[in-house]
Amino acid sequence: MANVAVVGAQWGDEGKGKIVDWLSSRADVVVRFQGGHNAGHTLVINGVEYKLSLLPSGVVRQSKLSVIGNGVVFDPWAFIREVNAIKEKGVTVNPENLIVAENVPLILPVHSALDKAREEAKGAGKIGTTGRGIGPAYEDKVARRAIRLCDLTDDAVLVEKVDALLAHHNALFRALGAPEMTPADILEPLREIAPQVLPYAAVVWKQLDELRRAGKRILFEGAQGTMLDIDHGTYPYVTSSNTVAGNAAAGSGMGPRAVGYVLGICKAYTTRVGSGPFPTELTDDIGELIGQKGKEFGVVTGRKRRCGWFDAVMVRQAIKTGGIDGIALTKLDVLDGFDEVKVCVGYRLDGQEIDYYPANAGAQARVEPIYETFEGWKDTTRGARSWAELPAQAVKYVRHIEELIQAPVALLSTSPERDDTILMTDPFAD
Ligand code: GDP
Ligand code: IMO
Ligand code: MG
Predict the structure, then answer these.
(1) Which of 2, 108, 274, 336 could potentially form a cystine with 128 if both were Cys, beta carbons 3.0 to 4.6 Å apart?
(2) Does domain 4-103+201-261 match CATH 1.10.10.60?
(3) 13 is an active site residue
(4) Strand, coil or helix: 406
């Protein structure tokens, strides 16, 4: 039985939360495998809005198992805050329907402090991170000094690890001219939060193996997007994890064959939040209008998202580098009413045409988009629930995008609401 991985195919905020929520009616388990509470995933169910950062989007369907895999960086305080917030909305969350890998590395206050201090020191050259400590936490993981959820069960080990961690971090703080931290600054809050989070700790790889063997369907929920991937994105203006579906296996403790169908999510246009190159960015009235119609403000930081036309070259590259089988195209309704709509079909770099996005940061900043212009549509697509309801010109736009990106559109989303979704190919049936 096929599993499905949902990943962003642009710079994040493509509507992954909405699509994961919709697809999770067909799944038994929803697994986050990378990123942390830098993500902001929005679900709208019968007019009620849910904003999730660290919790898998399956959590609102209380009968599904939600899993935070080992590939995530886990802030225990943010976790408890989010669990409490969703409980206040009437959703039942407990260790029966939400588990966290015991080997997940923790995000500590030292990481968010470092994230913010570094961004400040960079000034105009900053990455524009979410300030959640994601990068510094992944650095500690790779450097083998991270404190992991399982370490909270053994105080002697914890004390030793905190000492080793601070020897490193205080040297960095001294260099940045920031105040140093004492072991107690880290240990006391950890000892306080431990009894609240440890009930959720589980041997995730083992449970997932058992569920898989019992024929349960697993939905992997990516955060961020391919252009923010640490290897395949617009480095260094990226996040600190692999966002591609290849990481769904390693980040949850399953083999690559478990991943199944890879569904890439992309908007019918493009947005980006934070710094970095963006070839199709519109800094004019049209960009403003797209931002207003699409309500393009960040879920996590409230920052205004930069907006631009659909970039077929970039999405095609995301499809190739990430092994995407099909696309869910979202926010088509935001393009309703435009006289014309443009799509980037190639780049010009230093006078030459190229059909891919180069890796070099200077070249990424210099490429100029080559556009194809489409006639817009006056009738609305908003809320359409069948292909037949779409204006002919909108259908033409979608069909042409499929050709350009060399992948089929499996799902189409026409509003934030859960059920305003058109299914063309069932990813679970593939
Ligand atoms: P994610 O990070 O990929 O889950 O996406 P976000 O939740 O950060 O941003 C997507 C925004 O678009 C959210 O406010 C969604 O409610 C909204 N959204 C999702 N799909 C559609 C759609 O088809 N049309 C419109 N107008 N809004 C949508
Ligand atoms: P979702 O899952 C959009 C961006 C930040 C910054 C860069 C690095 O909602 O799509 P980080 O805090 O990760 O070190 O920041 O990545 N970024 C996102 N942009 N959507 C996200 O998540 C993002 N998560 C991080 O704005 O440019
Ligand atoms: Mg988001």
Answers:
(1) 274
(2) no
(3) yes
(4) coil
Whole-number Å distance, alpha carbon 225 to ligand 1 midpoint, is: 14
Q: Known binding site for substrate: residues? A: 299-305
Mean pLDDT of the chain: 96
Residue of 21, 28, 37, 41 with catalytic role: 41
Is the pLDDT at 1 greater than 70? The verdict is no
- The residues of the chain that CATH labels 3.40.440.10 are 4-103+201-261
List CB contacts of 325: < 8 A, sequence separation 6 or more. Answer: 261, 262, 263, 407, 410, 427, 430
Q: Is 415 in the pocket of ligand 1 (CB under 6 A)?
A: yes
Q: Where are the domain boundaries for CATH 1.10.300.10 in the chain?
A: 109-197
Q: Which CATH class is domain 109-197?
A: mainly alpha
The C-alpha atoms of residue 389 and residue 392 are separated, in whole angstroms, by 9
CATH superfamily of 266-423: Adenylosuccinate Synthetase, subunit A, domain 3 (3.90.170.10)
Atom number in ligand 2 closest to CA 134: 14
| Ranges of CATH 3.90.170.10 domains, the chain | 266-423
**What residue has token string 């919790």?**
55
Instruction: Please tell me which residue in 37, 64, 111, 141 is annotated as part of the active site.
Output: 141
Neighbours of 110 (CB within 10 A): 24
pLDDT digits 0-9 by tens, 248-261: 999 999 999 999 99
Sign of the four-CA dihedral 157, 99, 131, 192: negative
**What is the mean pLDDT of the segment spanning 10-36?**
97
Q: How far is CA 237 from CA 228, 313, 337, in A?
A: 7, 19, 33
- 141 part of the active site: yes
Of the pLDDT bands very low, low, confident and very high (cuts 50, 70, 90), residue 177 is confident
**Nearest-CA residue for atom 6 of ligand 2:** 129
Per residue in 227-250, pLDDT (tens digit) is 999 999 999 999 999 999 999 999
Per DSSP, the three-state class of 67 is strand
Q: Is the pLDDT of residue 302 over 90?
A: no
pLDDT-above-90 percentage for the chain: 93
Ligand 2 contacts CB of residue 239 (under 6 A): yes
